[in-house]
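Example 3.2
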Amino acid sequence: MSTPSDFTQHASEPRPVTLPNDYGKPLSLTARLVAEDIHFSTGTGVLTVEKLYRTAEGRVGYGIISASAERRERRAYSLDEQGETVIADNGCYSVELPVDDLYELLAMALQADAVNTVGEHALMRPAVNEE
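Structure, written as tokens:
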């Protein structure tokens, strides 16, 4: 059986990767896989695969594929930190955002997603001090 230390010793080496994208150009980079998640929603019947890559220069590539019996959707994004700003690219548009604004947008997206997935991955309850 592999132990966590065995896994880190055999972490993937950087390799050419192309993330498919139905909403823009595919994202190609030379990077190593740093995280992946696969989950199935029994409520919607959707299988979701997410992969996160990092280049030697620190650029991040994120690919997500969602599929059900009726449809499939593939998206790819890259994030390139430029000091106080981040250049985010979805294969069609590229925007430059201050890092603090990006964190705020991500927090809002996570909060909205949590509300939509109540009962699947998280149980949302008001904090003790909330009314």
